[in-house]
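request received
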Amino acid sequence: MDFAIQIAYIISAILFIYGLKMLGRADTANNGNRVSAAGMLLAIVVTLMTSGLSFGWIIAGLLIGTIIGAFVAIKIQMTEIPEMVALFNGSGGLASLLVGWAEFNKYVSQDANVYHFDAFKLIVIFLAILVGGITFTGSVVAFGKLSGRLPGKPILLPSRQIINIGILVLTLLAGVFIVAMPLSIAAKIFLAVAIIAALILGIMVVIPIGGADMPIVVSLLNSYSGIAASMAGFIIANNVLIVAGALVGASGIILTNIMCKAMNRSLANVLFSGFGSDTAAASGASAQEQGEVKALTPQDAYYMLEAASSVIIVPGYGMAVAQAQHVVKELADILEENGAEVKYAIHPVAGRMPGHMNVLLAEANVPYEQLVEPEDVNPNMEMVDIAIVIGANDVVNPSAKEDENSPLWGMPIIEVDRARTTFILKRSMNPGFSGVQNPLFFKEKSRMIFGDAKATISAMISEFKDAQSD
Amino acid sequence: MILQLFIFVLAIFLGVELIKKVPSQLHTPLMSGSNAISGITIVAAIIAAGIGGPFGKILGMFALIFATINVVGGYMVTDRMLKMFKGKKD
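response:
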């Protein structure tokens, strides 16, 4: 039986590897997820065949978890996906922490006659608790920032690096004590210290990071939760956990790197710079100097769009918030019927997660061929009659190439300021998620259309329809 | 123990190789899908909830609840996302 279980675990690991590989390609991604889910199901089923299990708590845990997980997955809106991924991720981290705790409990209640000291096991128990705890609270803070329950701006405690190093040292000391004297009463206290310190550490490392960088943080924490799962695998000497956890740990780091590159920042800069905390106030003053903005009504916008032959749509988080993806698609269809060429320019980090805009536009059935990347659209920007910026901000901010002192300096942007006319749909003059002021709004060729993106675009659509029925 | 470390290191390198070039529209589904895989800690949670003293088992059950949320929610949300990509190709 044990042999059969081990073979099944190998098959399960193969399914994870194939699934992950397929997830990285557009035409196979959907099946890739199912292949990996099949691997998970196989691993769960054969684990349930382990001899000596009592099923009471297992059935309760599986049932409650399935109901909550399925309910949340079915209920949520597509716009809420980034924060839900963060929450699921935190859930996995917490599970690894609890496994570590339970296994420690098991370790110390061994029969004294057969007890043998196992330093390696104690170390991995400690690491599962540490990494799992950081993943859990870090993900919860990321969830709070992404969903707007916590302020998106970085919260910078004075001398936070010293505090963090202090907590880390305390945690490691607790770890050393747990490994050195696991059976003492004090070890239980130190275990509690380690758990609490890990939880605090997770909060401390994420809270100074701005909301705009949360996607990168979630990706990094995803990697951590993989490492935590690996540690849980070391505890129970189970290879499928070790392999699957390591795969996630490594691929999460690679993905994090790809995302940092898209923003032209280093990971260290994202994690430690408190990006976006001090710039908002400073550039708020210069807003006056940059001149006045030119506002436009949807009616005026209609007249210009009616005459346009080349239109680029640049969506951002504002489109997601306003749930405007369907009306955007409708407007694009009308413009095409009217003879214009319409493209959607998608910045890799637009929205709250990389690929966020692609998911939303796919939901609205926008054809894949109409989506273009910044480097494809920037060279021909002068030929574009109208660029419509819908709730995007930082990814079209020209300071990235004009102002060396700007925090955005060097980030690749969609250069809509070079289009013949730029419409900017926005609710207010507030700066973007990064907190950086945007000189695009004050440019000669820019026109602001204030209001909810969905309402604004619907108004434009009805202008077109009225004109047709006349 | 050494064998397990060996497997761990090799799997890390494999993970790096698997995710080299991924188109940006797949970043979110990939993150969500790999997040579901990290729910594999569910295997350890099952063992913890099924074997050991009463306190350990209760801890194990809570671990199992959270791991199951990670697994079930993670796979279902990823599937929802990817279905939309598939829909437009037809």
